[in-house]
Task: inverse folding
């Protein structure tokens, strides 16, 4: 699949006293980016939860190459790398205003029934959409 | 009532690029402080939610007198100022390591039934404890 | 002056276990909104800091009328209420997707020399712009 | 080296609408834990920055095994896995109240001169302390 692009402007509260966007905030940006990707393919994350399914993060791996600074408009490229069983793997690349890759990441979420806490298959509509997307 | 004292050490992620604890983080500290006050008088906030009642914030007023810096151990003094109907008003004072008052606040929470979203009286056990506390 | 409008989509990480946008996050939204207002009138907040001046928050007063929920697109109306000496007072109103006012706030920032920590007048270019704006 | 133990009580603002501590908050806890480890061996992180050196995160890898819930007191075990050149690798394990491992992580920080942004060796006092620690 092609990667899906979102932009984010680094806020003042994202920074720490180093003057960098605090590293924990990338996880927040990547969370928003993956549900925006979902929205772009017709899947509304709130509806998934409404059906009693949650998609908690089970693995994250981030590489911080260069810092992001306050007020910079960064580009986040997101793609679904794989989808097997209950697991969806997202791949990310963040680009700064001068075109440099500043962060790379891989984040895995799992499909889980909220009530039981057990891993499950995503609803058929979603798994069909994801499979079709990955093959593109 | 006498004020209840908690301490908090400012973390790196609390800071912003001014080098100050970001002003939004006082609200997080004050939230923790009020439920620690509750714990100290025998009320467990998680149990309140378990009974279907939430205590959302409905009013906050904060005065930022001096900044708090990374790694400082600050003291938060909390007291319940009033309790009427569904509303509990908390008063706060934050003191830095050199004894200066750096922040003062007043925060009001309301007792709300989670399912209906309507204001309600707190469970009797809690309202009795609060009334007794305020009279002291 | 007329109010300046920004929009914000509530993220997953903004929510707490009540299912509401955590009350501390309004302060982050309002911070972004006021520097976007500044940008719209030709003042870049990063340039102010570059000149050795910071604008820390010294007073906040927020009224939480209704909760904001995950994925809602909220509208934030910001206006400068007053500007006297070193102090700028911002007024906010947040509107949800169905047109209801969910939050109202007043936030005061002070112009401060970063090195001395003392209150100061804003650079002339900024104070001229602000005065002209308020009179409109 | 033996691991260094810190505890953390999950706050309300740490949670998201799943009812879990939001995954980004582990990075904040781990940051605090590594500077507490430093404090325990006589190194004050603020003093490092005071000497013009920062220790930004350059790599993180986290495995989320079970969720942490509001008000739980979690135990964070931190150890320095390796220290070579400018890089220090920390290893973490988080344990919940019933003794289960809920999170495992590896985080690498780099020693960087704040002014140049270039990697550097840590001050001799620190590198001596770290080397001695790892050999234990």
Result:
């Amino acid at each position: 699949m092609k990667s899906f692009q979102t932009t984010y402007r680094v806020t003042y509260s994202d920074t720490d006293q180093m003057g960098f966007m605090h590293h924990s905030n990338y996880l927040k940006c990547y969370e928003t980016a993956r549900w925006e990707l979902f929205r772009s393919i017709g899947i509304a994350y709130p509806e998934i939860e409404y059906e009693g399914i949650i998609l908690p993060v089970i693995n994250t791996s981030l590489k911080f190459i260069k810092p992001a600074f306050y007020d910079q408009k960064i580009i986040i490229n997101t793609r679904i790398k794989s989808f097997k069983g209950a697991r969806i793997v997202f791949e990310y690349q963040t680009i700064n205003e001068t075109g440099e890759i500043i962060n790379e990441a891989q984040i895995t979420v799992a499909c889980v029934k909220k009530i039981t806490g057990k891993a499950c298959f995503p609803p058929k509509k979603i798994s069909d959409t994801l499979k079709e997307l990955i093959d593109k």
Q: What stands out?
A: The longest strand of chain A covers residues 73-84. The longest helix of chain A spans residues 24-40. Chain A has a mean pLDDT of 95.
